Amino acid sequence: MLGLMQSQQLLISSLIEFADRHHHEGEIVSRRVEGDIHRCTYRDVARRSRKVANALDQMHLAFGDRIATLAWNGYRHLELYFGVSGSGRVLHTLNPRLHPDQIVWIANHSEDQVLCFDMTFLPIIKAIHDKCTTIKHFVALCDADKLPADSGIPGLQSYEAWIAPQSDRYEWPVFDENSASSMCYTSGTTGNPKAALYSHRSTILHAWASALPDALNMSARDSVLPVVPMFHVNAWGLPYSAAMTGAKMVFPGPAMDGKSIFDLIESEKVTFAAGVPTVWQMMLGHMQQSDLRFTTLKRTVIGGSACPPAMIAAFNDVYGVEVLHAWGMTEMSPLGTVCTLKNKHMTISADEKMTVRLKQGRAIYGVEMKIVDDSGAELPWDGKAYGDLLVKGPWVIDQYFKGEGGSPLVDGWFPTGDVATIDADGYMQITDRSKDVIKSGGEWISSIDVENIAMAHPAVAMAACIGMKHPKWDERPVVVVVKKPGAEVTRDELLAFYEGRTAKWQIPDDVVFIDAIPLGGTGKMQKTKLRETLRDYILPGV
Ligand code: ADP
Q: How many CB atoms lie within 10 A of CB 170?
């Protein structure tokens, strides 16, 4: 017997329609490429996203056609999020931090028809437009008078001139909720990039689950600052969950330095911010130098790479901001786990709470996870056994776009490439990416643990641990360190700092000081590049 409830397709257009009706005065604040601060409301975004939909119709773009963006976080990008997906096309967010050749490869692979880009990226577009063989229309996200006369890009038009003549009335089409809505290519640390192709259903369910109190806890009383880019994994779905809850949105545009982010948090009374550790590292550095304090920020979600304990402590103890350590990946839309405490943790000591907060957290409803050994056998949830982490759920990929790489699933589960423990309370802790684990004398050393200890030293700004070939032990850890400006620490002092903080055999064999650790397109340390830099390095005593 079937239930007798209404059946409605879960479509992205419903989010902006809801925000328009119930939170029309909700503010959307953007720092623009032009440098100024732009203010509008959900009503304005709804109106203008309907104009985008009409403009796309007028270009005769088909259902499912890919519309690419190369853009910072801002209101025009948000309008494209709703206008493109809502009208049945697929929003393809390109990552401007990739090499131009990679951008060309990706745009051709996804067969983009339109490319909307921020003026910051005009030089890239000038260099690549004639290699992007499927793109028919280039749109610059600016006013008509900001458009350069001599760009050399055929048919280039400004976004404002493109949407100005369009009606702001539009009947959002109703279609199968499993239709594709947006896509994002993974960073492709190995082989060619592969795309996760999200659906309307997966996007709405992900937004719903991630807004819950024990996940990101979003509400109409929040002012949300996604520092995580809208060009990578849909800014962790925040544009959708904010529209779903009516939260104010604050967009940093291109200004991602510590001072600009801090100033925006204060001026826009931000209560909730989201970013990767490297961004927060810069902001905390700025705050320490200038002895600043937050007045409104309550919580910050940190993920993308492991959040060092020193950062959690700084936010928590010094600035009174709750850190939500979160884990996920492109293939998971991205949210998998968030570290929020349970009732039983309310009475434990601050140190014990810290032990819990360091973990990547509990699965949010909708995500199933398990850890397995090399033979695929499931390992116990005891907080000690570690193995490959596998996940499944309605916002986890089934396969990559165009079936690239064959089926990624193992018995219906998606292997994340991460190695983790899960404790009896369901808190998952990443010990490493499987390719970064250091295998020393048959035992595994977690590169994250080695990095976290170095990061706790007051003179260390950033640390990366990599395994180096060793004739006897197979591999031994070396920690590559960037010092804080003006701070000093020697190799021996740092190695002595490890004493008592970890098992003796897990202490790195050496420290290498370096000016900067290479970061990838999503702000993560690029260990492959680091290994190349250190290819002539020989371990002491080898
Ligand atoms: P890519 O590595 O291709 O850039 P993602 O941006 O999707 O892909 O990154 C996903 C990976 O980032 C995860 O598999 C995991 O290794 C790492 N990661 C994400 N969040 C965390 C976290 N909180 N702690 C440790 N690692 C994390």
A: 20
